[in-house]
Specification:
Blueprint lengths: L7 E5 L11 E2 L1 E16 L3 E6 L7 E28 L10 E3 L7 E6 L13 E26 L9 E2 L5 E4 L1
Parallel strand pairs: 1-9
Antiparallel strand pairs: 1-4, 2-3, 3-5, 5-8, 5-10, 6-7, 7-8
């Protein structure tokens, strides 16, 4: 009996090139006359590369989501609070994301908040805040968040390119 190994190229499209990011007024508290805002971007698409279902270990890779929080005006003890959400994308659900490809059988994968791969990153899963002691005219900070992607081993799907588009949102 001859055993064939198939290789599928799995690429998470859209975390970079087709990013649908939302910028909005941030949840902002403090003293004075000021306003807060935040912008979100993804530094590079998450690409898994070649996936070999015969490998005993899952295929993993990372990308970085960047949030720039800005406080403008005259404020003291200002705190900008936000959460970062990743939707299900064009395939599956947040709990069971799917990369779609050349066949009707998708390639299962998911996105996580850490390299322990225990917490799936969904809508508003990651929360953070930025505090400024004082703001005179404008004060901003940049925070980077690693997104951990993983494809479980042993999925025998048709060879070809697989992809999904994820929307990254900063929620206020």
């Amino acid at each position: 009996m001859t055993r064939m190994t198939r290789t599928a190229l799995a690429v998470l499209l859209g975390l970079g090139s087709c990013l649908a990011a939302h910028d909005a007024r941030a949840a902002c508290t403090g003293l004075g006359i000021f306003s807060c805002s935040a912008t979100v971007s993804v530094l590079a698409p998450l690409a898994f590369g070649n996936y070999n279902p015969g490998n005993a270990t899952p295929t993993s890779n990372t990308t970085t989501v960047r949030v720039v929080g800005t406080v403008t005006g005259l404020g003291v003890l200002v705190t900008l609070s936000y959460s970062i959400g990743l939707n299900a994308g064009t395939g599956g659900s947040i709990a069971n994301r799917q990369l779609n490809g050349p066949s009707t059988t998708p390639l299962a994968y998911n996105l996580y908040t850490s390299n322990a791969y225990a917490t799936v990153w969904g809508n508003g899963t990651v929360t953070d805040s930025y505090s400024a002691l004082a703001s005179l005219g404008g004060n901003s900070t940049t925070r980077n968040y690693t997104v951990y992607g993983r494809i479980p081993a042993g999925q025998y799907v048709a060879p070809g390119s697989y992809g999904n588009t994820i929307t990254v949102t900063v929620i206020y």
